[in-house]
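FORM 12-B: Structure-to-Sequence Request
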């Protein structure tokens, strides 16, 4: 959950832009100093928060922020 929160913070803080592709699980695991399984579980959490889209065999991409209803 901490890794999911960390990645979510990067997205909501603007460090990861909509449409950008997240690095692979192995690369993220190495950068964050955690196991690949930990990264995998974090990435499974993020679509439920509407922060990423995972496309099979293509990768995980930062989702567009939801349109504000004003």
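FORM 12-B RESPONSE
SEQUENCE OUT:
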């Amino acid at each position: 959950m901490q890794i999911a929160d960390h990645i979510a913070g990067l997205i909501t803080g603007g460090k990861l832009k909509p449409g950008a592709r997240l690095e692979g699980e192995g690369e993220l695991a190495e950068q964050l100093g955690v196991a690949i399984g930990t990264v995998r579980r974090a990435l499974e959490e993020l679509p439920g928060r509407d922060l990423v889209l995972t496309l099979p065999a293509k990768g995980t991409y930062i989702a567009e922020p939801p349109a504000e209803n004003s």
